[in-house]
């Protein structure tokens, strides 16, 4: 998956003069933040500045507070689809492919996503870009063939249900609360997605059959 940090959050200081050098400085600060998060910490601006050898004053010019710093470490993807160009037409296979990519990214970026999740739970907090429902769009894309084969299925509703059973929130619950190994937790998320799809298709088909007038 194509990932990048939040360059959209650049501050005015970064936009005036020596932009290449400033870009390298930002990259160093973001990289150090991600490293410290991966080690289990929740770094402050001062700690990241010390880890990079950059002065606190300079670091604060890029990130005025800890929240802005932690948000910068959040992965952002601009992809509209997680499916390959030669994606099959079968919804279940398509969903498996999307879940594989989505869950792999969730695990690879777990420390950053956990930090982002904590930030998103703060009262009145702005949501990081990857928490804006983009995954629902990826799942809807996987389920798109249902519009022709099973028009009775509410694709949006199904995509929301699948998203609720996957992602960082589900991973945190499965590993921290249910105490499952990560391999088992990720397998269960994929199983849940597939089960929800199968239940939706079977359930709507049964409902349509019950509504069909007798011969």
- As a whole number of angstroms, the C-alpha radius of gyration is 21 Å
Largest sheet: none
Instruction: Average the pLDDT over all residues and give the rounded result.
Output: 83
Question: Distance N terminus to C terminus?
Answer: 52 Å
Provide the number of structural domains.
2
The count of strands amounts to 0
Q: pLDDT under 50 segments (min length 5)?
A: 1-8
The helix content is 55-70%
Structural class: mainly alpha
General shape: elongated
Descriptive report:
- By secondary structure, this protein is mainly alpha-helical.
- It has 2 domains: 7-72, Arc Repressor Mutant, subunit A (Orthogonal Bundle); 91-211, no CATH class.
- The chain is 63% helix and 0% strand.
- The protein has 11 helices and no strands.
- It has helices at residues 19-38, 45-52, 56-62, 66-72, 91-108, 110-120, 134-143, 146-149, 155-164, 167-177, 182-211.
- The radius of gyration is 21 Å and the shape is elongated.
- The protein starts with 18 loop residues before the first helix and ends with a helix.
- Mean pLDDT is 83; it is low at 1-8.
Helix and strand layout, with pairings?
Elements: H1 19-38, H2 45-52, H3 56-62, H4 66-72, H5 91-108, H6 110-120, H7 134-143, H8 146-149, H9 155-164, H10 167-177, H11 182-211
Helix pairs in contact: 1-2, 2-3, 5-7, 5-11, 7-9, 9-11, 10-11
């Amino acid at each position: 998956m194509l990932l990048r940090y939040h360059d959209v959050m650049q501050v005015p200081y970064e936009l005036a003069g020596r932009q290449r050098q400033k870009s390298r400085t930002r990259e160093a600060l973001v990289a150090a933040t991600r490293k410290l998060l991966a080690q289990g910490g929740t770094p402050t601006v001062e700690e990241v500045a010390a880890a990079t050898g950059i002065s606190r004053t300079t670091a604060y010019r890029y990130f005025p507070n800890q929240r802005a710093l932690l948000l910068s470490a959040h992965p952002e993807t601009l992809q509209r689809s997680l499916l390959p160009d030669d994606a099959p037409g079968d919804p279940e296979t398509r969903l498996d492919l999307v879940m594989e990519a989505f869950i792999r990214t969730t695990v690879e970026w777990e420390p950053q996503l956990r930090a982002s999740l904590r930030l998103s739970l703060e009262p009145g907090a702005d949501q990081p870009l990857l928490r804006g429902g983009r995954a629902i769009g990826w799942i809807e894309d996987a389920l798109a063939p249902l519009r022709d084969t099973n028009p009775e299925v509410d694709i949006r509703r199904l995509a929301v249900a699948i998203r609720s059973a996957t992602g960082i929130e589900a991973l945190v619950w499965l590993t921290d609360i249910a105490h499952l190994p990560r391999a088992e937790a990720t397998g269960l998320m994929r199983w849940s997605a597939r089960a929800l799809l199968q239940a939706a298709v079977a359930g709507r088909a049964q409902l349509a059959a019950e509504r069909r007038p007798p011969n």
